[in-house]
Amino acid sequence: MAFECNKESKHSNLVEIGKEIVRKCGGVPLAKRSVGSLLRLKRTEDEWIYFKSQDLSSITRGGNDVMAILRLSYNHLPQHLKICFTYCSLFPKDFEIQRFDLIDMWIAQGFLQSTTSNRDNVEEVANSYFMDLLERSFFQETEIPHLYKMHDRIHDLAKEVADWEFFSIIKPEDTEIVPDQTLHASCLFQIDGSSAFPNSFYRKHMKLRTFIYLNGSPFIVMCNSTLERMISSFARLRVLHLGHLQIELLPQSLGGLKHLRYLAISSESVVTLPNSITKLHNLQVLKLVNCDKLKKLPRDIWRLVSLRCLVCKFCNSLTHIPPGLWQLPSLIHLDFDCCFSLKDMPPGIGQLTSLRTLTNFIVGKESFISGLASDKLNELKGLVDLRNSLSIKFMGRARAIGERIPTDVVKRMEHLRQLSVQFEYGTHEDDTGADLIMLEALQPHQNIENLQIENYSGSRFPSWLMFENLGFLLPQA
């Protein structure tokens, strides 16, 4: 952990000191990982000797105290990482933390150092914070990409170092003991009925900046009046996360949270969102996950002028996206993954030239019927900063392409790593050559690593796939 990839030979003078430090860690793997990660930032012999003889000895003279060693690692964190780590005390033990959810919450709370003013760069800064904590062993990777956990002892440390500004409400009785100073709260019990929180709780905690509800159940429905009271009382919220919320209607008062920057809702029962949320002019992140019955988004969503991230995942009833997205100048991430009923993309997507994420791009049947399928596909040309993966789905076949032939639609996307192209399912042959013309325009950049083509019915492959040395054209695939 201290030398990275077995580079001990380059620091042979430190190895013997390191062995003594290992012995002081008492054979506890977590303690050794934590100390090793800390020492990675120290490279001189004097620093290692001081750490061994002063910092470490001061807590191990009376025996091996794992928590004291972990606390020492925390004490060496810079201040901006301390508060980011402490924020994690709001999550329960064994909770799988989604990296991008967490860094979006950090950004919403203003935890980033003020040295950066470029809003396009804030995510990279927040991600560097996360990676720094990961390298220091405050997080552990799981088998699923982007999901991380905290060791039980690390979680204990987070709870220990958290001051009264952070509080987890584990059972209903805890609502009576939440400190007056609390600014960030999580609710980890199932809210059933209207009496979950006493009136005194709402009066004392009007200054809350975070409310995270994580212990929802598909069998328990939260009372409408409870949610209405929460939202109307916590007017200073910056982060509102409602996990597995079972309620059909969200209150119009949601639009009154004028400081809100992060809103995440997971609900299998919500059918629609109140149009009042378009008044949230400071909202940066809107995440709708597993909202299986959600049929539409607010028609005036273009009024969310600060929105940089819009996520709709596993929203299987969502069929259309309202027009006007192109008027959102801050939009960087547009994720409609696993929205299987989505029929088309709104016009103007090509004007969102700052987009880094666009998981799906659908050319709907109406575009083919009106002869505008090529124009629709050409909208992708300006999105040269797209990253990770892009899925292009054709919902019909053009009978005649005319003179508007798309060209080099994705070739300039050098950061794209996965490209999926799905044509309309069917067994009939493409007698007009439309599939061939569309696919000809979709030659990816040579940095592509994964290319998938489904239901292609052309009589031959496009010229770029017929290239003699395809491995040279696409060396990473």
TrEMBL record:
Domain of life, source organism: Eukaryota
Alphabetical keyword list: ATP-binding, Leucine-rich repeat, Nucleotide-binding, Plant defense, Repeat
Xref: InterPro entries: Apaf_helical, Disease_R_plants, LRR_dom_sf, LRR_R13L1-DRL21, LRR_R13L4/SHOC2-like, P-loop_NTPase, WH-like_DNA-bd_sf, WHD_DRP
Claim: Ribosomal protein is one of the keywords in the record: no
The Disease resistance protein winged helix domain, residue ranges: 90-158
Residue span(s) of domain Disease resistance R13L4/SHOC-2-like LRR: 220-337
The R13L1/DRL21-like LRR repeat region domain, residue ranges: 377-470
Assigned protein family: Belongs to the disease resistance NB-LRR family.
UniProt xrefs under PANTHER family: DISEASE RESISTANCE PROTEIN RP (PTHR23155), OS09G0313500 PROTEIN (PTHR23155:SF1211)
Name of the protein: NB-ARC domain-containing protein
